[in-house]
Amino acid sequence: MRSRDEGTKGRRDVAVKDLGTKERRDEGNPSRQSAIDAQSAIDNRQSTIQAVWAALATVTDPEIPVLNIVEMGIVAGVRDSAEGVAIDLTPTFVGCPALEVIRDQVHGAVAAALGRKVTVRFVFDPPWTSDRITDEGRQKLLAFGLAPPRQGSDLVSAGLPSDGDDAAGSVAAGLPRPEATLERVPCPHCGSTDTVLDSPFGPTLCRSIHYCHSCRQSFEHFKPL
Amino acid sequence: MKTFDTLADLDALSRQAVIDLLYRLADDELVIGHRNSEWTGHGPILEEDIAFSSMAQDEIGHAQVYYQMLHQLREADPDSLAFGRKARQFRCASLVCLPKGDWAFSVMRQFLYDSAESVRLAALAESTFKPLAQLARKLRGEEKYHLMHGRGWILRLGDATAESHERMQKALDELYPHALGLFEPTEADEPLAQSGIAPREKEMRTQWESAVAPALTAAGLSVPENTPPIYGGRVGRHPAALAELLEQMQLVYNIDPKAKW
Q1: Domain membership flag for residue A177
Q2: C-alpha distance across the termini of chain A, in Å
Q3: What domains can you pick out in chain B, each with its CATH number?
Q4: Best exposed site among A2, A114, A135, B25 by fewest CB in 10 Å?
């Protein structure tokens, strides 16, 4: 069943579109001064939104401090209204212990930058997936020594097609089978794919542990989600 | 079919049925999460210590979100629900209440539980109750790694040595009727099915049985047949192990419910 979450990726666009509607409405106003006022209100609002995004980019994930939360893709939307600025965050892992820290830091950073009322809430629509990590974010993960998650896989079921040696035979029965997404992950140190999964669980909920046969190093990988 | 986009859109009958469903989901997650945490510092190898601790953290996080949703439906706050209720007020299945046993027992339980949860979350992802559908989609992504972990160990241990096989088979025989109890129908079954919020428990049980059988058979284990399910958890009748678990888990809260740490 499709739901309305499909169209909400990045409320940033929504906010800009809202302004567009206002702008069009104001075009019909014959008063030149009023048109100027309206334009300046739009400019103000756009600069507010930009300032919010700039403040959000100063907040890092406490567990992966090289990435800011915008690069991590957890900002689901920013809205500016007379009541204040509302920010939606879509959590990476529901049980992530860093969530409350991130919420407080977002609140602090945006309130300090704008001096206005800020509300921060967590949403599951759109759901966070590792495909939301930006390209720049992926480069930073790699430089940090953490293999970036594979992209574009079926991230919910990760049900890659059976390759014939599916001993458990449960693909046909509909159970998800993420094993293939954790095999032969490129090593962040030497780039080799001669690697094996050591454990699907690591030092934080979002990481798995692997071993590279080529450079003989253990490494961690941001699990595709 | 009519959809319920927000919690406020639920009519009285659906609302009561959703509350019943959420208690079952949340209590299962909290209690198995606590059981998993009992392996922290005691896992047979370091990786498994980490795996069970991570799964515990996930499950307890999921319980918290379900409790939060209950709170939005005007039930008590999440901390009171987790720490302030007696055993008979919990709605978890007996499967999650049982003591952790040996590691074969815990791994087998985790596999049976995660495969059932996988079937359930796939169904809930299509729920007409949108907030739950969104959450289910999110949780499926996380839970897939639990299932992968359990399945890997079932395959490895099921036919590794005579001892590992025997322990896994023994665990399966003991746990299977409790796992069937995850699908104990409640009074909410019909209203949930009729409003498209969740399928009937019976349907999910059938799906689950056909999903786990191939995995267990591939591991060289025999799936118990004609086993009557162990019911009671969904109406608050639990093995004594739950009260013992809660006594430990709620100890600090009971000394001082307002304590912060």
Answers
A1: yes
A2: 21
A3: 10-255 (1.20.1260.10)
A4: A2
Q: What's the one-letter identity of residue B67?
A: Y
Residue to substitute from A124, A131, A171, A179, interface B, most B β-carbons within 10 A:
A124
Please state the domain count of chain A.
Answer: 2
Domain holding A18, by residue range, is: 4-122
How many angstroms separate the CA atoms of B172 and A122, rounded? 39
In 10 A of CB B133, how many CB atoms? 23
Q: What percent of chain A has pLDDT over 90?
A: 49
- The amino acid that residue B214 corresponds to is P
Is A188 a member of any domain?
yes
Question: What pLDDT sits at residue A152?
Answer: 72
- Whether the predicted pLDDT of A182 surpasses 90: no
The CATH code of the domain that includes A66 is: 3.30.300.130
Q: Under DSSP, is residue B120 helix (H, G, I), strand (E, B) or coil? A: helix
Residue B185 pLDDT grade (very low, low, confident, very high; cuts 50, 70, 90)? very high
Q: Interface pTM (ipTM) of the complex?
A: 0.83
Q: Which two tokens stand for residue A173?
A: 């029965």
Kindly state whether residues A170 and A75 are assigned to the same domain.
no
Q: Which residues of B touch A179 (CB under 8 A)?
A: 148, 152
